[in-house]
Write a structure and sequence with these properties.
Distance between the termini: 20 Å
Oligomer: single chain
EC number: 1.14.-.-
Structural class: alpha+beta
Protein name: Antibiotic biosynthesis monooxygenase family protein
Keywords: Monooxygenase, Oxidoreductase
GO molecular function: monooxygenase activity
Shape: globular
Number of helices: 4
Organism: Streptomyces anandii
Helix content: 10-25%
Number of strands: 4
């Protein structure tokens, strides 16, 4: 079943810390404007930086969006396309696509 454009979605961006440590990646995350002010991005409900507990150099940026439409509007809008993310140098492209968009298939309330 596909995700309707009006349903909440989760976006995961796969990241990898540099060999000399995770601080530059974590600092880049903290400096992103929508992390400091998520209310400035219409439709973004929250974001968090996750660290893989088994592979400490691997991270995932998790964002929750009120709808696929809201995410796509930001993804293809000038605020994102014209302003490369400070996290771009850390994107983990070793796995192929460095991000995924997930619809909610099932959720406990």
């Amino acid at each position: 079943m596909s995700t309707a454009a009006t349903e909440r979605v989760r976006v995961v961006v796969y990241l990898r810390a540099p060999e000399d440590g995770a601080e530059p990646l974590e600092q880049a995350y903290r400096e992103i404007s929508w992390v400091r002010r998520p209310e400035a991005v219409p439709g973004l409900l929250r974001s968090e930086l996750l660290r893989d507990v088994d592979r400490p150099g691997e991270f995932a940026l998790h964002g929750e969006w009120e709808s696929l439409d809201a995410y796509r509007a930001w993804q293809f809008g000038p605020d994102h396309k014209d302003n490369p993310s400070a996290l771009r140098p850390f994107q983990d492209r070793s796995r192929g696509r460095h991000y995924a968009v997930y619809g909610i298939a099932s959720e406990d309330l």
